[in-house]
Amino acid sequence: MRTSDTYKTITKPSKETLFKEKHSKFFSYAFPIKNEEDVKIALESLRKQHSSAGHFCYAYQIGTQTDKIKYRANDDGEPNNSAGMPIYGQIQSYAVTNILIVVVRYFGGVKLGVGGLISAYRTGAQMALDGSNIKTKTINVLYLISFEYKNMNKVMRIIKEKNLNIVDQKLELDCKITISVRQKEASKVETSFNSIYEVSVKELED
What we know:
Blueprint: E1 6-10, E2 17-21, E3 24-32, H1 36-49, E4 55-62, E5 70-74, H2 84-93, E6 99-106, H3 113-130, E7 134-138, E8 140-148, H4 152-161, E9 165-170, E10 174-182, H5 186-194, E11 199-204
Antiparallel strand pairs: 1-7, 2-3, 3-6, 4-5, 4-6, 8-10, 8-11, 9-10
Helix pairs in contact: 2-3
GO biological process, one term: regulation of translational initiation
Organism: Bizionia saleffrena
Pfam family, one: Impact_N
């Protein structure tokens, strides 16, 4: 079970880094991602940029909850586990998530061997991470608060007292406010709203 309600990620793509080994060139990139569609878009962009490269090896991890993490490692034609897993190993080593790392290889005519490839792809991933701005973020829970307009003051008082972040609101006769709460504060906040008569609280899927 995760005891912390924070995680580490990057907020913008890294700068391109270059690593050379026995005439082969390894260009490395890190991208912030939210889903597999983001992975596809980043890979398509790199394939256009490096149209004559031989291998686009990558690994990614998505998710902040231990039981919901998705990851993939792809060797893209290199020997099994010589590229994708060494890249993924660096993602784990730096304890980052919602991230894609791609290492693009131009073959230089000299075979590196499996050990050489593992070392080169690990180094490429490490350089991409070292060139990234890694930030710590909080894991948040979204709640939908539904109530009649007459209960507005009671609801807003809790929001103000607990300094809650309003994500969306629709204030009419029937009001709906979506709030974002740090995971470790979520149950207390939910209890506070549940204690108000005629106010409904529902946790939303992020």
